[in-house]
Write a structure and sequence with these properties.
single chain, 198 residues, alpha+beta, minor pseudopilin epsh fold, five-stranded antiparallel beta sheet, four-stranded antiparallel beta sheet, 2 helices
């Protein structure tokens, strides 16, 4: 009798709920197809984000330069190349009453903002100018922007504080893309920095 009960109970076991190997392979194949279809969209979004992120980073760092110039009593100069922006503070004078001197390319760099591949700084202009104020930018040719201890910003080479506009392009995208062109405006008297697309 005991054997009959054991056999009856073992034949009534609940079915297992595990996946078979074939079901698991089908699920993995579907996930792989979906991932392959979504990859171009992710790549395009990443490329578009690179220009936006760089423009925001540059605006934030230039605003930081203004704050540092006000708080330390030493101006900050931004050297704008086509592939990077190098930020250097003014060099303190040899005596307490000596005026600080403008930094040169040989002076230590405080920070460098490097553009990702395909994103370039194209020009720096002064307000109202049709052509770039400092010429064409390259990895060796630069335009400079100073942040003074009074909070003003000035394109280096202008007699009065003029402010400046830094242009950058994301060449990874088509020219009609809304994320292709960016401009970073630096106000002359207040040193305020803002970003907008062209």
């Amino acid at each position: 009798m005991y054997d009959k009960v054991m056999r009856a109970s073992s034949s009534r076991r609940a079915p297992t709920s595990a996946f078979t190997l074939i079901e698991l392979m089908i699920v993995l194949a579907i996930i792989g197809v979906l991932a392959a279809a979504a990859a171009p969209s992710f790549t395009k979004d990443n490329r578009a984000r690179e220009g936006r992120d760089l423009a925001s980073d540059v605006a934030r760092e230039l605003q930081k330069c203004r704050s540092e110039a006000l708080s330390t009593g030493l101006g900050v100069r931004a050297f704008v190349f086509s592939n990077r922006i190098e930020l250097r503070p003014y060099v303190a004078g040899a005596t307490p009453i000596a005026a600080p001197t403008a930094p040169a390319l040989t002076d230590p760099v405080a920070r460098i903002l490097t553009a990702p591949s395909g994103v370039i700084f194209t020009a720096v202009t002064v307000p109202g100018a049709a052509a770039p104020a400092g010429g064409t930018l390259s990895t060796t040719v630069h335009s400079d922007l100073d942040f003074s201890t009074q909070g003003a910003a000035q394109f280096v080479g202008q007699a009065i504080p003029t402010g400046a506009t830094v242009y950058l392009q994301n060449t990874n995208l088509p020219t009609n893309s809304p994320d292709y062109d960016f401009r970073i405006d630096v106000t002359a008297l207040t040193g305020y920095v803002s970003v907008r697309t062209n």
